[in-house]
């Protein structure tokens, strides 16, 4: 089981500890054969660094059987910005099968690692690509174990072995191995670098059992110098199977890229939907407010029509009679205001008369001085009336 506290301590020096912790937890939950641990990693330039790696086995299906392939995934301190470094870790009874995906040191090369995209690439996708790729070209093969001819072969089994154990069987009277009838897993596939299998002319031992269902392995060729029909048929079947697996892998990678594109489009559509919903809610609120204002305006318009009809039916009234006050103080205030406004108009027209040359400057100054003095007294009177009436000054 993964220790979250210890894992957090390991990821302290990582640039993105939260996303790295989340990525590791997702892998461990899906593939329980992998467990995180911290070890020292040596780079090509000789520098070392304490990094977290995922070590264990992943299930790989090959020719109808499932095998546990041992791997080690090193996470750089910039994860998930940069792709991890991956290795195949064969045990003592395994050998590395060199291919375009695995070199002689066990380092793994995949297009998924080369085209690592931060934000969309993750460890789950990497492990899935490994499973598909290794299902087409296994990265390891089991070293053949030949039992002694003078003793009955033993059946080794170790519950701690993380991969299937090759269980040899005694030869039958036809001179070849019978398929296993036990419920155990078949062994790792034997290395085969060519599309057409080679058959040694003088075999000194019985070939190990190859995974492939209940088929019986044919007896070896005894220096015939020719290739029989069944050999050609087996080679053709192998070539077709490899071609189909290659196409399946290409289709898987294409579907995965399309899936990532669809996910991105889905997120954009969700964001667009949220914006549209917000705009729609705002427009709905504005529509309700507008309808409410229209109703109020119609009511006010109806009131105005009613008031106009009442005024039209009434007799004409004198403006002076219409303006009446409720108290002598208010009447004094009203008269002072009217008189002050009249003085303001008189001063204005005196200025117009001076401009037009109707009166001279001496007359203008004398009259304006007199009107201004009266206007000042009227304004003082209005201020006192307002104070007495309790009105704002």
TrEMBL record:
<dbReference type="GO" id="GO:0005768">
    <property type="term" value="C:endosome"/>
</dbReference>
<dbReference type="InterPro" id="IPR037202">
    <property type="entry name" value="ESCRT_assembly_dom"/>
</dbReference>
<dbReference type="GO" id="GO:0015031">
    <property type="term" value="P:protein transport"/>
</dbReference>
<dbReference type="InterPro" id="IPR052070">
    <property type="entry name" value="ESCRT-I_UEV_domain"/>
</dbReference>
<keyword id="KW-0653">Protein transport</keyword>
<comment type="similarity">
    <text>Belongs to the ubiquitin-conjugating enzyme family. UEV subfamily.</text>
</comment>
<dbReference type="Pfam" id="PF09454">
    <property type="entry name" value="Vps23_core"/>
</dbReference>
<dbReference type="InterPro" id="IPR016135">
    <property type="entry name" value="UBQ-conjugating_enzyme/RWD"/>
</dbReference>
<keyword id="KW-0813">Transport</keyword>
<dbReference type="Pfam" id="PF05743">
    <property type="entry name" value="UEV"/>
</dbReference>
<dbReference type="InterPro" id="IPR008883">
    <property type="entry name" value="UEV_N"/>
</dbReference>
<feature type="coiled-coil region">
    <location>
        <begin position="245"/>
        <end position="300"/>
    </location>
</feature>
<feature type="domain" description="SB">
    <location>
        <begin position="327"/>
        <end position="393"/>
    </location>
</feature>
<dbReference type="InterPro" id="IPR017916">
    <property type="entry name" value="SB_dom"/>
</dbReference>
<keyword id="KW-0175">Coiled coil</keyword>
<keyword id="KW-0967">Endosome</keyword>
<feature type="domain" description="UEV">
    <location>
        <begin position="1"/>
        <end position="144"/>
    </location>
</feature>
<protein>
    <recommendedName>
        <fullName>Tumor susceptibility gene 101 protein</fullName>
    </recommendedName>
</protein>
């Amino acid at each position: 089981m993964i220790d979250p506290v210890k894992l957090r301590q390991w990821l302290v020096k990582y640039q993105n500890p939260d996303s790295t912790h989340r990525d590791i937890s997702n892998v461990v939950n899906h593939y329980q054969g992998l467990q995180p641990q911290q070890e020292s990693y040596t780079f090509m330039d000789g520098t070392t660094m304490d990094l977290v790696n995922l070590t264990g086995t992943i299930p790989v299906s090959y020719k109808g059987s499932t095998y546990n392939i041992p791997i080690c995934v090193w996470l750089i301190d910039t994860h998930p910005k940069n792709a991890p470094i991956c290795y195949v870790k064969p045990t003592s009874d395994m050998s590395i099968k060199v291919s375009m995906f695995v070199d002689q040191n066990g380092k793994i090369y995949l297009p998924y690692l080369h085209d690592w995209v931060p934000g969309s690439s993750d460890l789950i996708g990497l492990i899935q690509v490994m499973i598909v790729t290794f299902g087409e070209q296994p990265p390891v093969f089991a070293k053949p174990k030949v039992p002694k001819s003078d003793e009955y072969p033993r059946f080794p089994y170790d519950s701690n072995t993380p991969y299937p154990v090759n269980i040899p069987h005694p030869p039958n009277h036809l001179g070849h191995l019978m398929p296993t009838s036990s419920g155990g897993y078949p062994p790792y596939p034997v290395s085969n670098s060519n599309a057409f299998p080679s058959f040694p002319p003088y075999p000194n031992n019985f070939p190990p059992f190859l995974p492939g269902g209940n088929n019986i392995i044919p007896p070896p060729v005894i220096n015939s110098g020719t290739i029989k029909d069944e050999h050609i048929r087996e080679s053709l079947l192998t070539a077709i199977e490899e071609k189909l697996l290659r196409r399946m892998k290409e289709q898987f990678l294409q579907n995965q890229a399309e899936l990532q594109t669809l996910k991105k489009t889905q997120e954009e559509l969700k964001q667009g939907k949220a914006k549209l919903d917000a705009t729609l809610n705002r427009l709905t609120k504005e529509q309700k407010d507008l309808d409410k204002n229209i109703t109020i305006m119609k009511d006010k318009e109806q009131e105005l029509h009613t008031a106009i009809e009442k005024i039209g039916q009434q007799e004409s009234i004198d403006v002076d009679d219409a303006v009446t006050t409720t108290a002598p103080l208010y009447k004094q205030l009203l008269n002072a205001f009217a008189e002050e406004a009249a003085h303001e108009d008189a001063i204005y027209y005196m200025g117009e008369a001076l401009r037009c040359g109707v009166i001279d400057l001496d007359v203008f100054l004398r009259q304006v001085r007199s009107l201004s003095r009266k206007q000042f007294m009227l304004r003082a009177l209005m201020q006192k009336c307002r104070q007495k009436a309790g009105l704002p000054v």
